[in-house]
Amino acid sequence: MTLRPRPALQRTPLRPYYLRRASKTNSRGDSTVNIRIATFVQAAGPQCQDRAAVFETPEGRVIVVADGVGGIGAGAAAAEAVLESIRRHPPSEKALAVFGYAARELLALDDALCADPQCGETTAVVLAVGHGLIAGASVGDSEAWLIEDAGYTVLTASQSRSPVLGSGAAVPRAFRTEAAAGRLLVATDGLFHYAAPDAICAAACSGEPQGAAEALLALVRLPSGAIQDDVAIVLCDLSDEDSEAPPDE
Description:
The chain is α+β, with helices and mostly antiparallel strands and 249 residues long. It is built from six helices and eleven strands.
């Protein structure tokens, strides 16, 4: 059966881990989940411009993917600066539930990167998974997908592809949805530009996250074993995600 994308969402205006098993507690302090996350970053050339990381907070997990823009210099430094900023300032429990929080953070990052002569430009997807929600923001052509049995939703469908962070003119777009059972895939265009959606969905759901992330990377490998572009992948199994939502604001 051919998987078809769902309609775009209407609500749009630290330390990295290779494979992590993370226990989570609900508001009563009971351990309720065993989330499995796999992270891959693969360079196509001598310098990798892509970055990916997962940060644990008491309220949930924060996933960050960034793709430094090549050809204008210092893209890798810009992508690294995005990760470092989130590492230093992870969102609070209240921030996880506030629609648009991540977009405001990315706007501040755009100004900071633009003012830093050591940094170039970068895409970014920053999202939090917790309390039964996925909430975040993005800019550029990196993407976040929620893959379920019935199909997939491109959470970043309404994002602005250009200008990106570091330009001083970026327009991050926020998104939020329920964390339904399935796989959450966050990756750079090194995956999405070179692999078909059906193949991506099939690979992302093929077994444990580590093996599935390896299958995703295999989709973009040439017969020589090389890849055409840097690629960063974070794959999260949400099958056991806590369904408890935060209180309304």
